[in-house]
Amino acid sequence: MKKFTLALVAAGTMALGAAEASTIDFTIDTAASSVSATLSSCTVGYCSTQASLASGFGGSFSLAPGESYTFDFAEFYTIDDTGTGDYDVSATLAFSAPAGLGSVSDTGVATISTLNIGAVTGGSLAWSSVPATVTLADGSQVSVDFENGFTVIGSKGVTTATVTLLSIVPLPGAALLLGSGLGLLPLVGRRRRKAA
User: Fold this and answer.
1) Which of 15, 61, 81, 166 could be stapled to 46 by a disulfide with Cβ–Cβ 3.0 to 4.6 Å?
2) Hey, what's the signal peptide range on this chain (predicted)?
3) Alpha carbon separation from 31 to 34, 51, 74 (Å, rounded)
4) Residue closest to 125 by CA, chosen among 166, 82, 158
5) Calpha distance 25→95 (Å, rounded)
6) Distance between CA atoms of 91 and 107, rounded to whole angstroms?
7) 18 has pLDDT over 70
8) pTM here?
């Protein structure tokens, strides 16, 4: 019986460690996500920069506590203008999983320079209030951050979003030990009946 009890304690300890090291699955809701840029002032030339969700935006990923996932979120582009303008930017990043995350929205200001070859050549982007920390339905915490600034890739300006799993609420260790103990009750009852 001692060997069986030791094996049970070891199994409970391993199960507790596995519960604490679990991950959370995230799924980006592309239909509910959006980004837009509205011209507020054109300081030089002709300004017609537009914004959209980045090429290849969407998908699923899993994170363990302390891990982050960064992906292309929005892109700024133009079709044949030369100028520098200031734009009001609005963005929403939505998730269909995990439960309780929903969406994170923010606004910002971008200054974007373009050339008449249809290329974004530089600029700046500053968001108002991200990163946002969201508490999920199970009590776990997630941070969602939009990149300040953007990187010129080809003829577009691309900005990223980063999701970080700050903490996870594991299955309580007491529940695992209780389940193990309840599993032993039939064995103990059988031993007592045999002894009597």
Assistant:
1) 81
2) 1-21
3) 8, 16, 14
4) 158
5) 11
6) 6
7) no
8) 0.77
